[in-house]
Amino acid sequence: MRRRILALAAGLAAACLASPARAHYPYCTCAMENGQIVCRGGFSDGTGAEGVTLDVISYDEEILVPGKFGPDSTVHFERPAGEFYVLFDAGPGHVVEVDWRDIDGLAP
């Protein structure tokens, strides 16, 4: 019995070592839609961003609109006054910034 458990453990370890690490990168796009800015986010492996932080921040580093992606991996908000950027923060190495000038349909 003990040999069987050790063989199983060794097989699982080998399978884990043989599997290549798969990185998944975040993405975030924002556009004007029906008078609001809509940001859509997710990861390159196809997973959504539900519950992940997406904040709208002024150039003075003040959070103008705190938020999180909804079940459909979107966030909707009114355009803030002045210059700002959108910060999608899913943790270290998983951060995307979208400057207000890069938002589709938002004229500078």
UniProtKB/TrEMBL annotation:
Signal sequence region: 1-23
Keywords: Signal
Protein name: Secreted protein
Keyword Signal found: yes
